[in-house]
Amino acid sequence: MKDEGKQRGKLATRTLARVAVFAALIAVLGLPGSLNVFGNAVPITLQTLGVMLAGAILGSWRGALAVVVLLVLVAAGLPLLAGGRGGLGAFTGPSAGFLLGWVPGAAVTGWLVERAGHRPSLPWLLVACVVGGIGVIYLIGIPVQALVTGAPLGATALLSLMFLPGDLAKAVLAAVVAGGTQRAYPDAVPAVHQERVRTGWGR
């Protein structure tokens, strides 16, 4: 019983460490800054790449938790968003829906990867990143942007299409990185980690 408790403690520590690493990764991907094009109030950033990677490598709940940790730090005032943005104001502007969409986006990406079992294929990883890291985030971000700016939903959706080529490129990169990581380190496959947790051999 004592060894089992110690093992669970180690598992919890490792889980928290991985969550913290990916929260930091998303923050670091904001360092190159942001770009506003064609008058869109929502900037283009690399941080959605980190959201996709968090879901694809950590799985549904850990990936979502990594994003939650980052957003809590942002809300507390840390300038961790692209362009050095931080504070509660980030959650009241046009990009608020996209930021909040990162959480279910990472969760859905991870959930889909978990469905692929111990050896997720590259096409499946790509589908997971596109559905979770693009589709889910757009589904939340675009209506909120329209609500905040007062612009018609259709016009906002059309304007947001400019994000799509870059986001598809990020999805491809995330799928390739996640696939390579999981081939090199099988424990990085979310389904493998879940099984280890259930059987008490998580590490």
Automatic annotation (TrEMBL):
Its main location: membrane. The chain crosses the membrane at residues 12-31, 65-83, 95-113, 122-140. It is found in: Cell membrane. InterPro entries: BioY. The keyword Calcium does not apply. Keywords: Cell membrane, Membrane, Transmembrane, Transmembrane helix, Transport. It is a multi-pass membrane protein. Belongs to the BioY family. This is Biotin transporter. It comes from Nonomuraea antimicrobica. The lineage of its organism: Bacteria, Bacillati, Actinomycetota, Actinomycetes, Streptosporangiales.
